[in-house]
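sry for the spam today, last one i promise. C-alpha cells for design, 193 residues
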C-alpha cells in the first residue's frame, strides 16, 4: 500500500515541495495535503477501510468509537469508523486545548481508536488522546494515513500508518531553508492563525 499511496499523493498534487511551517511549529521542505486525496469519496472510503484493517490485528479490543482532531482528521475518523461499524467523533481546539464538543460523549472505559491524517511529532494526537482519557474512555490504538516521522513517534499504544516517510523537520532557528533566505508557507488547517 505504501508505494501506491505515495503515487496517489503525487498524482493528486498532495505532496508539496517548498518551505512549510507545520502545525507543530517546525519547518519542513515537504508538506502533505491529505484533503486533496480525501476529497475523492471512493478513495477516502478505501483508505479508511485499509487503515481499519491495518489496526485490527494490533488492537487489544475492538473500538466502540473512533476519534480524531478537527480539521484534518475528521474525514479519516468518519471513514475508519464506517469500516469498524462504530461512531466517528472529533475534537476541536478550545481555549488552547483539544476538547469534545457538539454533545459528543464517551462512556467510562469505552475502547477508542484515535486517528489522524498525518503524524509528524504526535502532538495533536497526544492532545486528542488526553481529551479521550479525560472523558473516561480508553485509547486502545492510534492510526494515521501518513507517518512523516519515519516511525519514530511513540504514543504508548499500538499504532499503524498506511504510509511511513522520513521527512526532515527543523526548528525555526536551525532551519537551512530560512538560512537560505526562504520564508515558510503555512498551508494547513491553522493557516489563518
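last one done:
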Amino acid at each position: 500500500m505504501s508505494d501506491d499511496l505515495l503515487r496517489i499523493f503525487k498524482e493528486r498534487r498532495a505532496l508539496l515541495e517548498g518551505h512549510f511551517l507545520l502545525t507543530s511549529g517546525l519547518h519542513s521542505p515537504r508538506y502533505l495535503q491529505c484533503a486533496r486525496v480525501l476529497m475523492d469519496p471512493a478513495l477516502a472510503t478505501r483508505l479508511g477501510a485499509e487503515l481499519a484493517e491495518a489496526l485490527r490485528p494490533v488492537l487489544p479490543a475492538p473500538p466502540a468509537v473512533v476519534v480524531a482532531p478537527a480539521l484534518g482528521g475528521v474525514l479519516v475518523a468518519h471513514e475508519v469508523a464506517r469500516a469498524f461499524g462504530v461512531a466517528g467523533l472529533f475534537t476541536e481546539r478550545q481555549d488552547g486545548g483539544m476538547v469534545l464538543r457538539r454533545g459528543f460523549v464517551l462512556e467510562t472505559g469505552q475502547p477508542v481508536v484515535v486517528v489522524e491524517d498525518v503524524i509528524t511529532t504526535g502532538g495533536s494526537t497526544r492532545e486528542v488522546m488526553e481529551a479521550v482519557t479525560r472523558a473516561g474512555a480508553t485509547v486502545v490504538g492510534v492510526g494515521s494515513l501518513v507517518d512523516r516521522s519515519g516511525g519514530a513517534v511513540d504514543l504508548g499504544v499500538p499504532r499503524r500508518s498506511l504510509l511511513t516517510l522520513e521527512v526532515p523537520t527543523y526548528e525555526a532557528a536551525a532551519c537551512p531553508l530560512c538560512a537560505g533566505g526562504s520564508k515558510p508557507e503555512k498551508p494547513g488547517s491553522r493557516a489563518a492563525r
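The domain at 41-167 is CATH 3.40.50.2020 (Rossmann fold). ok im logging off now
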